[in-house]
Amino acid sequence: MGSQWSRDPTYTSAIGEGYRSRASYKLLDIQAKFEIIRPTDSVVDLGSAPGSWLQVLRNLTEGVIVGVDLSPIAPLQGVTTITGDFTNPLILAQVKRIIDPVSIVTCDASPKLSGKKSYDQARIIDLNEEALRFAKAILKQGGNFIVKTFQGELFNDFLADVRANFYSVRVYRTKATRKGSTETYIIAKNYIHARNEPGTD
């Protein structure tokens, strides 16, 4: 696996610039295109390990930043990390004790893939839905949401769910995404908090 990554110029460049993975360039590309993260935004990053998006976020905002992942994340100055499953209500409660409400929720997470297309697509969309549920529970009115997903038979249904909760929703394939990959990002701006009723999240 090491030789595979070493042949990837984007990975090599990322490591050379001090980032923990090539995924850093994906968030930098999204920010350059959409200017979604503002200098004072508070951000929760779901599926953070190894922490490359947290590194980018720390450079983009002076707000509070929290990263959540099942795997431990090596410490980053000015960032709070939580080891746990973001689908667990106790993790949501822990995040809320640190920052509530939140300006932006980002999620670059994806499950381990089996190679079975339909099964993997269902698992990916399920994870996406959990990230959206988390975002709806903690975002402030007008907040933003970035989530990685994959094109497939369930993609349009999930996209419709996002559009029902945000005024502006775009689909974007980053320049750092590998050729042949169905990976894409949903960039959602201006959360419609008023639509939520007490107890629905």
What does this structure look like?
It contains seven helices and seven strands. With 201 residues, the protein is α/β, with parallel strands linked by helices. The chain has one domain: Rossmann fold. The N terminus and C terminus are likely disordered. It is 37% helix and 23% strand. The chain has a seven-stranded mixed sheet, sandwiched between helices. InterPro entries: RNA_methyltr_RlmE, RNA_MeTrfase_FtsJ_dom, rRNA-MeTfrase_E, SAM-dependent_MTases_sf. It catalyses: uridine(2552) in 23S rRNA + S-adenosyl-L-methionine = 2'-O-methyluridine(2552) in 23S rRNA + S-adenosyl-L-homocysteine + H(+). It comes from Methanocalculus taiwanensis. This is Ribosomal RNA large subunit methyltransferase E.
Using brief descriptors, characterize the structure shown.
single chain, 201 residues, alpha/beta, Rossmann fold, 7 helices, rRNA processing, rRNA-MeTfrase_E
The largest sheet has its strands arranged as: 3-2-1-4-5-7-6
Output mean pLDDT: 87
CATH topology: Rossmann fold
CATH superfamily (homologous) name = Vaccinia Virus protein VP39
